[in-house]
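ok so I'm stuck.
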Amino acid sequence: MIGFRTEFLTATTGTGLMNSSFDAYKPRKEGEIGQRNNGSLISMTQGQAVAYAIFNLQKSGKFFVEHNTDIYEGMVVGIHSRDKDLVVNVMKGKQLTNVRASGTDEAVSLTPAIKLDLEQALEFIDDDELVEVTPNNTRIRKRLLTETERKERVNKLTYKVFVRCKSLSRIHFASTWRFFQECLAIL
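replied:
not stuck anymore, here's the structure
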């Protein structure tokens, strides 16, 4: 049932009623668990989120954090509108130069942050992410917090191997571990 509740509420526009009861614990069925299509917005430093930075980054995706939320490096702060992860700086404030000469500042209007409960966070995470639960917050973070650790991990998993796939009868460049395994399965 994990993952169905959100789809159900979206399909019924919040008017549907759903009830569930526990039957038993059973082994997980074979097959892959569905993957999400969007990447994550990941914080690049530690500090507090600033409304000005969130406002300027809203075109990149939807956010889980609001103004003055404590964040840390590697914390997932939102959903990227594209399929790749994006490292963002949500602590970048507006530069205050020539304050007296400038006109009035524009009011910053933020779209409300997405608040995830535990079930929604578990449904959202990918293979390289973890859910962090505290008494006051439910956060999502990357398994490897720093960007350099994540890049090193990707480089270790990247293999430059030429594989001749029998079904395709041409040479493919296997750039990721998953593609490499798929090609070996075909052989």
